[in-house]
Amino acid sequence: MATAIFATAQVSSSAAKGAAFGGVIAIRLLPALILGPIAGVFADRFDRRYTMVVCDLLRFVLFASIPLVGTLARNAGVAVSWAAIATFLIETVGMIWAPAKEAAVPNLLPKGKLERANQLSLVMTYGVAPVSAALTIVVVSSLLKAKTDTWASPSNIALYFNALTFLAAAVTVFFGIKEISGRSAKRDKGEGVLTQFLDGWRYVGRTPLVRGLVFGMLGAFAGAGVVIGAGPFYAESLGGGDASFGMLFGTLFVGLAIGIALGPRLIGTLSRKRWFGASIVMASCAVFLLAIAPHLAVAVLGALFVGSGAGMAFLAGTTMLGTEIGDDVRGRVFGFVWTAVRVVLMLSISLSATLVGFGGTRLIFGVNVSFTRILLAAAGIVGAMAGVLAFRQMDDRPGVPVLKDIWGAVSRRPLTVGETDPGKGLFIVFEGGEGVGKSTQVVKLAAWLRLRGQEPVVTREPGATDIGMRIRGLVLDGKDDISPRAEALLYAADRAQHVTEVVRPALAEGRVVLSDRYVDSSLAYQGAGRTMAADEISWLSTWATGALKPDLTILLDLDPAVGLKRAGERSGADRIESESLAFHERVRYAFLDLASADPKSYLVIDASGDPEKIALEIRERIDVLLTREPAHV
Ligand SMILES: Nc1ncnc2c1ncn2[C@@H]1O[C@H](COP(=O)(O)OP(=O)(O)OP(=O)(O)O)[C@@H](O)[C@H]1O
Ligand SMILES: Cc1cn([C@H]2C[C@H](O)[C@@H](COP(=O)(O)O)O2)c(=O)[nH]c1=O
Questions:
Q1: What confidence tier does 25 reach under pLDDT thresholds 50, 70, 90?
Q2: Which residues are annotated as a binding site?
Q3: 3-state SS class at 370
Q4: For residue 608, which ligand has an atom nearest its CA?
Q5: What is the three-class DSSP state of 495?
Q6: Could you tell me which residues are annotated as the binding site for ATP?
Q7: How far does residue 471's CA lie from ligand 1's centre (Å)?
Q8: Where exactly are the transmembrane stretches of this chain (predicted)?
Q9: Alpha-carbon span 442 to 428, nearest angstrom
Q10: Which residues share a beta bridge with 426?
Q11: Beta carbon of 437 within 6 Å of any ligand 1 atom
Q12: What is this model's ipTM?
């Protein structure tokens, strides 16, 4: 806004003002075309914190230079030319900054909190920031009305302020968020820039999830572009003018905010992959409703649904880009998606505005139909097709009826698998990496419970049943190459038998069950360790256990290097213990992520301390649980 207003302020005729405004906007989009495809390589190749800091410092200097050059040159031609060049450079730098930032954020948060973080970020970016910017510019303009020709004109002040925000961001990221550099130290694998660039494109092409995300996002943005481009003519076709257009546009944004703010609460546990496709289909159907709306009231309803569908799809899409795509390629995927989205949006806005301008009205079956409506109907159909395509590419619950699944999630009765009453017992699970002391603590807690007159059932995974023992032999002792999917299924099979044969009967009798490992081990080892999709592993375990959840999970957290050393001193390394340290580090962080996403269900303990102190900490928590639940005493 500041740069476009600055450019228009430098010229006087209305044609020149229009050209200056449009020129600045066009220049802002140009770098996306030129630089977008390789911007992601920067984010994957270099330290993301330094990339962000350097980009912000450059933007600070460039923004400040626009009013400075204007004041010093005292020549409209020079000022506007430099504004255009600086704007181009700012946008170019922004193209490099954005994938670095987007790729860094998922490493700073537990996976379970990323959706919340994205909600906050989207509301700030598209809600709070533009409104505050518009208000600031109104206030600054009215305060400085008399000083339009000096260095302190409103647009100059806005630009200096803008420059300072980038300086503040650079300082914050450099000194305050050092963790951004944390997990990226081993990223440079000696590959050339071109190889990394091509690898990124190949990854987008061959990964169904990313393909689905790209189809869906591009379809949604093309539809949004058509709605924006055709908007003024559409308002006319409803018999309204600028006020109707303003109302529809405003409603679209209200819908967007509603989708982003309330969507996750509405759909509860529905698979995010299904939610993404379904939201695009919903937004596209609403675009079709706009096309056939007979009057403004129906069109306002349509705009509300277009906005909320788009908001939900945007939130689900950005969250999945963060949670489902590996750190090493995430920058390139973000770079690719943002570039494609900008180009599609720009093209669809300008093409649709041009087309409806020339299109006029057509006579169809004796009815006068404006070309705007035909275009909107086509956009609705294309968008819905993109949504269905995305849904099919990404569906993680094939065979589960879609509408029933959505209704189950909305009505809080998700279509889980054979969910049964867990009984009145207490189910305590010990989790953590290798050698953290789970078995040691299970024995200590069992002994304490016996002193209190309880007879706990002590069990473990894998291997608590006869079948489980054979599975344990296969997954841990065998030298065979087991594929990740087969491994996940073997652990799930052990778990199904374990729950049916040992855990549920004991809980039904009201006993306390202490299990050394459960579902979280699969999420951590097969999900994060083997880098399989977490929600697929989760679904498999839910199916295997009939959705039986522990009452408390005690997570013993320890540096894997220390744990593996402890375990190695005890016995030789098995198939999983022999995995790399990086594998075990991923496992550790996955356990911590799970605990921080649901802190009430976990007790996280530093396992490097004295075993007796750890046992005391556990007893204190169990004591509270047993006292609160008289059935177990
Ligand atoms: N807090 C502790 N400090 C030091 N050593 C410990 C501690 N707790 C347990 N150990 C020792 O570490 C080794 C591994 O402990 P334990 O078998 O209880 O771990 P675990 O988590 O069950 O391991 P795994 O998952 O590999 O079966 C044992 O030799 C045990 O005596
Ligand atoms: C339940 C479960 C376990 N694992 C792995 C984790 C360990 O390496 C072994 C079990 O050995 P322990 O000495 O009994 O702790 O199996 C896994 O990868 N996935 C799982 O679901």
A1: low
A2: 432-439
A3: strand
A4: 1
A5: helix
A6: 432-439
A7: 23
A8: 25-43, 50-73, 79-100, 120-145, 157-177, 212-233, 245-263, 275-293, 299-321, 333-358, 370-391
A9: 10
A10: 512
A11: yes
A12: 0.98
